[in-house]
C-alpha cells in the first residue's frame, strides 16, 4: 500500500518532494480572478449571484441572526458544547503564552526609541461548509485572534442547501467568540473580505482553509490584505523505532490520508519488520473505516515508507521533507526534539497521536504544508498582531550626530535626506 524508497536513492527521494508540489490549473486562476473582479465591482450583487450559482440557494440576508444562532445552539447536544468549552480552555492556555509586549530603549540627550505591539483591527475567518465542516478550525482560527485582542472578528462560511449554516459551525463560533457571521463561501467570500461590500466590511487579514478556489483567491488578494498561508493538502510523517506499535502507526497514517486523495502519509522507520507489520495493519484497519476509497487513493498517490539506519537519519529525512505534522513515535522522544528543524507541529511519544492536536491538546492545527515549514510558522497570536516602531531625538542629539547622517545620505545620492538634517543643525 505504501511505496518503499531508499533514502540513498536521491532521484527517488527527490520525487517524494516533487510529488507534493501541486501546481494550480491556470483555468482556475482565471476563474478566481473573474470572481474577485466581479465582487470588487458589484459587491453584494456579486455575492448573491455566486451564492445562487455555486451553492444553489438564494439568500435575502447573508448576516446570521441571533435567532439562527439560538436555533443552532439548540440543535447541538450539551455534551459537544462541553467538549468545545474544554478544547477552548486548552487552546487558550497554550496561546496566551505567545503574547508579546513592546519595549523602549532610553539613551542620553533625551533620545528614546521602541517598539509597539498592536492587534489588528478586523480579521476575517473563512470556514468551509458542507462535508468539510470543521468546528475545530473555528476554535483554532478565532481563539488566538481573541487573545491578541483583535477589535472585530468576522466569519464567512457557505450556506447549506436550505440556506442555513451547519449548526456545529455556529456553535463553535459562539463558544470561540466570533462577532459577526455571513453566509457566503468560495472565492467570492475571500473577495468580500478583501475589498468590502455594502454588507461585509473590509478586513485587515484573512485566515482559514478552503478548497483550491479559496486558496487561489487568498493568494491573489494578498497585498490588499494579509493572509495566514497558502495551505496545501494535509501531511503526516511518522518516525517510528522498532518498539512502535504498528497498529498505532497505521492508524495515524490513515488519520491524514482520510482528508484528501492528495494528502501525504510517510513512514520513516529503522525497522524493516515494522514496515511489514504496518502494511498488515493498514490493510486490516482501512476496511473498518468509512473513507476507505479516499485513503486508498491517497496512499496510492502520496504514501511512502523510507527505512533509515538511525533515528538521527530519520530526522534528517524529515527535515528535508519539512512535514506539516511530525510524529516522533520513539523511546525518549524529547531527547530528539532539538534535532528537528523543519516541522509544523511535533507530536512526541507512542500515545500522542496527531488527532489530539487537531482537536483538544491546545496547540494550533493551522500549520504550514508542502515543505513551507522550512520558513512558515503555525497560526498563533502573532498572526493577529503587528509591530510599529517609534523614535525621538532631541535638538542636542541631532547636533551631535547630524553630520554623520548627512554624510550617509550623500553617499546614497539623496540630497533631500541630507537637507532635512542640515536645516535643523
Automatic annotation (TrEMBL):
Q: Which residues form a coiled coil?
A: 268-295
Q: Which InterPro entries match?
A: Ald_DH/histidinol_DH, Histidinol_DH_CS, Histidinol_DH_monofunct, Hstdl_DH
Q: Give the record's family classification.
A: Belongs to the histidinol dehydrogenase family.
Function according to Swiss-Prot or TrEMBL: Catalyzes the sequential NAD-dependent oxidations of L-histidinol to L-histidinaldehyde and then to L-histidine.
Q: Which residues cross the membrane?
A: none
List ligand-binding residues for Zn(2+). 256, 259, 358, 417
Question: By its UniProt entry, which SUPFAM superfamilies does this protein fall under?
Answer: ALDH-like (SSF53720)
Residues that hold substrate according to the record = 234, 256, 259, 325, 358, 412, 417
Annotated catalysed reactions: L-histidinol + 2 NAD(+) + H2O = L-histidine + 2 NADH + 3 H(+)
Q: Which UniProt keywords apply?
A: Amino-acid biosynthesis, Coiled coil, Histidine biosynthesis, Metal-binding, NAD, Oxidoreductase, Zinc
| Entry cofactors | Zn(2+)
Q: Does the keyword Iron-sulfur apply?
A: no
Note on cofactor: Binds 1 zinc ion per subunit.
Q: Which organism is it from?
A: Breznakia pachnodae
Enzyme class comes to oxidoreductase
Q: Which gene encodes it?
A: hisD
Q: Where is the active site?
A: 324 (proton acceptor), 325 (proton acceptor)
What name appears for this protein in its UniProt entry?
Histidinol dehydrogenase
Q: What is the lineage of its organism?
A: Bacteria, Bacillati, Bacillota, Erysipelotrichia, Erysipelotrichales
Residues annotated to bind NAD(+): 126, 188, 211
An example molecular function term from Gene Ontology annotations: histidinol dehydrogenase activity
The EC code for this enzyme is 1.1.1.23
Where does this protein act, in terms of pathway?
A: Amino-acid biosynthesis; L-histidine biosynthesis; L-histidine from 5-phospho-alpha-D-ribose 1-diphosphate: step 9/9
